[in-house]
């Protein structure tokens, strides 16, 4: 009587044929399908931009183009406010203009790696930014 192994061992064929076409690895549609995992992902990625455009349009309709320009200039100015490279900015004034200061999001809880605490030498960081190092 012939003893069979307890584990099923897979045997690879000696010659493997890979077909090209709709199911082959060179199909560009496969990569396009892998980029977006969920139908709502693209919508969620564009949500902040859409909200900004919507609020800007509402300001323009209710208060005129001058108020919209002032709002957009304030947003632009608060986005450019920065601190020294070793002190990241929280963008609190920008969040207040956008109304994000009243919401708690997963970003607030879990944080951003950019704002993690780092032990750096401030003088070395400034010299590198100014091109002195």
Low-confidence stretches: none
Order of helices and strands: HHHHHH
Number of separate helices = 6
Q: What is the helical fraction, as a range of percent?
A: 40-55%
Q: Main beta sheet, described? A: none
What is the overall shape?
extended
Average residue pLDDT:
78
Give me the count of strands.
0
Separation of the first and last Cα atoms = 79 Å
* Radius of gyration from CA coordinates: 27 Å
Strand content: under 5%
| Helix-strand makeup class | mainly alpha
What are the key terms here?
133 residues, mainly alpha, 6 helices, 0% strand
Explain the layout of strands and helices.
Elements: H1 28-35, H2 41-63, H3 65-80, H4 92-98, H5 106-110, H6 122-129
What do you see in this structure?
By secondary structure, the protein is mostly helical. It has 6 helices and no strands. Helix 2 crosses helix 3 and helix 3 (65-80) runs antiparallel to helix 4. The longest helix has 23 residues, at 41-63. It is extended. The N and C termini lie far apart (79 Å). The mean pLDDT is 78.
Short note summarizing the structure:
With 133 residues, the protein is an all-alpha fold. Helix content is 50%, strand content 0%.
């Amino acid at each position: 009587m012939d003893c069979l192994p307890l584990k099923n061992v897979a045997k690879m064929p000696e010659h493997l044929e890979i077909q090209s076409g709709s199911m082959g690895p060179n199909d560009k549609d496969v990569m396009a399908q892998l980029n977006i995992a969920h139908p709502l992902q693209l919508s969620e990625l564009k949500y902040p931009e859409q909200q900004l455009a919507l609020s800007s349009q509402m300001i323009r309709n209710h208060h005129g183009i001058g108020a919209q320009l002032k709002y957009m200039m304030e947003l632009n100015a608060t986005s450019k406010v920065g601190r020294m490279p070793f002190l990241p900015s929280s963008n609190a004034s920008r969040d207040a203009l956008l109304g994000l200061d009243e919401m708690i999001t997963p970003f607030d809880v879990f944080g951003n790696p950019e704002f993690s605490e780092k032990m750096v030498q401030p003088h070395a960081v400034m010299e590198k930014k100014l091109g002195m190092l």
